[in-house]
Write a structure and sequence with these properties.
- The protein is α+β, with helices and mostly antiparallel strands.
- It has a domain of 75 residues.
- It contains two helices and two strands; from the N terminus they run H-H-E-E.
- Strands 1-2 form a two-stranded antiparallel sheet.
- Strand 1 and strand 2 form a beta hairpin.
- The longest helix is centred in the middle third of the chain and has 42 residues.
- The radius of gyration is 31 Å and the shape is elongated.
- It starts with a helix and ends in a 6-residue tail after the last strand.
- One of its GO terms (cellular component) is vacuolar membrane.
- It is found in: Membrane.
- One of its GO terms (molecular function) is ABC-type heme transporter activity.
- Keywords: Membrane, Transmembrane, Transmembrane helix.
- This is ABC transmembrane type-1 domain-containing protein.
Length: 110
């Protein structure tokens, strides 16, 4: 509406073409931060949902529990090995295909 009104004033010679360009520039400078705020709001909203899901996962009770007064398990030369691991949330889209790796005790794999 403002742009049409400004164009009308330019046509009636109450404003110059430069005033019209200035009006458009002001509108763009006002719109860009508002657009950023919308994007920022969506990012925060998604992050809160993800955090809620993570907290629910942390509250899960483990299926396997140690017996009361269990002795610590000391392993020497222990390792975890994955051989030909295939995984997907559905059969049409596999995330892992025939993955093989070995992680020895005391090492970290990222």
């Amino acid at each position: 509406v403002g742009s049409l009104l400004c164009a009308y004033f330019v046509s009636t010679k109450e404003l110059s073409v430069g005033d019209y360009v200035l009006f458009g520039t002001y509108i763009i400078q006002l719109y860009m931060p508002l657009n950023w705020l919308g994007t920022f709001y969506r990012t925060i909203q998604k992050s809160l949902v993800d955090m809620e899901n993570m907290l629910e996962l942390l509250d899960e009770v483990a299926d396997v529990q140690d017996v009361p007064n269990a002795q610590p398990l000391h392993l020497r030369g222990a390792a975890i090995e994955f051989k030909d691991v295939t995984f997907g949330y559905n059969a049409q889209r596999m995330v892992l295909k025939n993955v093989c790796f070995r992680v020895t005790a005391g090492t970290t794999v990222a």
